[in-house]
Design a protein that fits this description.
The structure is a single chain. The protein has eleven helices and no strands. It is an all-alpha fold. Helix 5 crosses helix 7 and helix 9 packs antiparallel against helix 11. It is flat, with a radius of gyration of 23 Å.
Length: 281
């Protein structure tokens, strides 16, 4: 129990440090904004390690963070192969194709009241379909390669992106659109110079949602058929072999990849929407 008590003391001490940092001027600096969550995350890992060791939890139930880190260190080639198959070949292409198709469809819906009344309800219906039901169908259609995983991702990200972009295109004020019409601006000029800039916060909100859905879709699709590698394949295989350390290693890599993709989208959003009130802090 000494490991558990030590972990609890470290966690309480770090909690007190974080409370002090959050209320100090340091928290307003870029360094302080990064330091507080880093300390919090590190202390959670220490507490996890202490709980596993102090309570004697079996590795097949919950491996310690040190065991997961050791597994990552000894399985880097396999983890990279799985990452490339799932993320680089499945999630990112599906994310880009689905987001691009949603943008083009949103512009078409904006131009056509018929599509707005007819396509959006169907889109909401398709978006409500369970992915565990669509994934095996798409795997049968597109095969066991990365193409079927990308197709699942396209289905998952398309409709959230579509709804956000359609809402964003309506975000500009009617007076602004009337003013553009008074100046003789065409639809394309109004779209590029007024409506798309006003829609950017909605677009990036959809992109951030889609960035996490893309990873989930690619991994889930691999449960229903894939080559002999991939994150979803590895997780399902190792669960059957009770290799929980490898399962958690794959989860850690997926979480890091998802955080990185989300962070890239957030940085691009900050660069492109610096004028928006949400970025003034």
């Amino acid at each position: 129990m000494s490991a558990l008590l030590l972990a609890l003391l470290v966690w309480l001490g770090a909690w007190a440090l974080n409370v002090w940092l959050a209320g100090s001027p340091v928290a307003k600096t870029r360094f302080g904004k990064a330091l507080v969550p880093l300390i919090f995350g590190a202390t959670l890992l220490v507490l996890w390690e202490g709980l596993v060791r102090g309570l004697g939890i079996a590795p097949v139930i919950l491996p310690a963070p040190s065991a997961i880190a050791a597994k990552i260190a000894t399985s880097l080639p396999m983890l990279w192969q799985d990452f490339a198959q799932t993320i680089l070949k499945g999630a990112i292409p599906g994310f880009l194709i689905g987001s691009g198709a949603a943008f083009l469809t949103a512009v078409a819906i904006d131009r056509s009241p018929f599509l707005q009344r007819g396509l959006l309800p169907i889109g909401n219906f398709v978006a409500a379909l369970p992915i565990v039901g669509l994934a095996p169908i798409l795997v049968m259609w597109f095969g066991f390669g990365w193409e079927s995983k990308a197709a699942v991702v396209v289905v998952m990200v398309f409709f959230p992106m579509l709804v956000n972009i359609v809402a964003g295109l309506q975000a500009s004020e009617r007076m602004q659109r009337d003013l553009m019409a008074t100046w003789g601006a065409s639809y394309l000029q109004t779209l590029v110079k007024l409506r798309l800039p006003a829609a950017l916060p909605f677009v990036f909100n959809g992109l951030k949602i889609a960035s996490t859905l893309a990873l989930i879709g690619a991994i889930v699709a691999e449960f229903f058929g894939s080559p002999t590698f991939g994150m979803g394949f590895r997780i399902s295989t190792e669960v059957g072999r009770l290799g929980l350390d490898m399962v958690w290693a794959e989860i850690a890599v997926a979480a890091l990849a998802g955080s990185l993709l989300y962070g890239i989208v957030a940085l691009i959003e900050r660069w492109m929407t610096f004028w928006h009130p949400s970025q003034r802090h």
